[in-house]
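Bench log, entry 3. Co-assembly request; chain sequences pasted below exactly as received.
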Amino acid sequence: MPLVFTLAFRNLFHDRLRFVATVVGIVFSIVLVTVQMGLYLGFGRTVTTMIDHASADLWIVPRGTKCFEDPSLLDARERYRALSIEGVAEAIPVVIGFADWRMPSGATTPVFVIGTDLRSGGLPPWDLVEGRIEALSTPRAVAVDRSYLERLGISGMGATAEIRQQLVRVAAVTSGIRSFTTTPFVFMDVDRARSHTGIPSAKTTYFLVRLSPGADLTRVRGQLASKISDAEVLTPVEFRERSRTFWLFSTGAGAALFAGALLGVIVGTVIVAQTLYSSTKEHLNEFATLRAIGSSRGYIYKVIVWQALLSAVIGFSIAALIGWAIVRLTAETALPILITPGLIAGLFSLTIVMCIASAIAAIVQVTRIDPATAFTR
Amino acid sequence: MSEPVIEAVNVAKVLGSGAEAVAALRGVSLAVSCGELTLLMGPSGSGKTTLLSILGCMLTPTEGTVRVCGQSTDGAGPEDLALLRREHVGFVFQSFHLFPTLSAADNVRLALDVRGEPSRSAKARSREALARVGLSHKISAFPRELSGGEQQRVAIARAIVGNPSIILADEPTAALDGENGQAIMKILAGISREQGRGVLIVTHDPRLLPFADRIVHIEDGRLVGEERGAAGPDMNSRKSYRG
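Structure output for the full assembly:
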């Protein structure tokens, strides 16, 4: 083992209380950043879950639509204009809207209705654990997620309730389709969705466009944009990005998450810098001796940087374990914390950079060491 | 006498500035040669340690020239001086300055590690150096497990492991009892005579006189006299320094 590493290691562990304080600082900082960034990623994925699961090459959306949950409407007859364009195989209407769900007990709770043409399979529910998609075509049939059964005041398959004074019956149950707004999703046929949300039969929220095999997406998109009034034609990627941008940045949610992450980085950097600085100060005599026996400044910097790196690796490892536990705990919540391999790599890099940056104050202090003090102590 | 390994020529050093400026050294010239053990003696505040620091390339003189193995330190920057120290000078300090978290062997190896010596050969040389000062059996001991005399021997091993041309020692026996002090001086004298290195020791302890080849006296920043020591070739010669 290189002696410079041994020296750094022993310096670090020599004062265990200070070492614990350093590691706690790093762990606190990295866990905070992990949670904030994990929430950011989880939120970013949750707000686009419907777009991610829709089967479409293009989306026709009302002009100015900011996100999937936007309540603006299109003229349903535009569907025929869309179908008249060469290369368009299908234009599947999707209707969304909020409604009140009346439980068997008489209590009500808001729900978010998603209606689609079930035969075309534009945006049907996924991850079914009970029932079948086909069953949703039967009168009054709806699909709900099992995580919301209690909230909806029902027991599960076959249970009944009312939306807009109309009876509905649970014909399929999904698992894991959760809304970041915590308002339960209720899937049903598009026509009944209009009826349950009060949207006129001549209106729709979106059209999901599927292209014919070999059709030129750019050309079809251009023609759709020119033929359909008061609408925009977006690729799924564009719509996803627009929704994500709206929820994360226009609402301030993303900024709050980033601010929290930044706070974590600042707190961590300050704590690590303070402990490294005081550790260096305590070992200043030893560093002066090193300098006196001819060590270059670079050698001493290496000792300090190794101390910082060791702190970073140990702190990150503990933070990663805590982060993993938090991910497990939030996996079934409405807003799960999402940790990706990229985020882990980024957090590790951040920890290293944070600890190295923290070492700068200590390094500056060492730069001023006078080797002659070795004779006067 | 052979060529000096370290030499100060008309060195002056002013410490502090303005009204607080103090002339610590005033035109000092001193040379130490290979195989010679020189004692630098003088009262507190006479400039002993300042001269040792300048000769050891830790301080730069305000005026005058310092040469280490014939190489002038004029215009040398901090890193150049550090290079001179690690290549040519070994240091022994009054309070040992061992690293409490490192074993005796690692404390010695540190002097080679700062030179970039490969770990394997550095370990072997550190063991040899500890054997030379009679501490083969304490290789793995930490400073807290060693007596004061043993700690100073580890410090000497650290000073000699890199085969420096000169050893500069600052009151190496001040923190030791008489017996340990004598043992340390025997080691330093052996280093001077058997290994042919120059040894310059700052002290005010008269018990060290029998080990000296030469004794140089300093007062108020000036060398005021020199005499041959009991161990030197001519005990009676004495030369006075002026200015």
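Chain B touches chain A through 36 residues (CB under 8 Å). Confidence is low (pLDDT under 50) at residues 234-243 of chain B.
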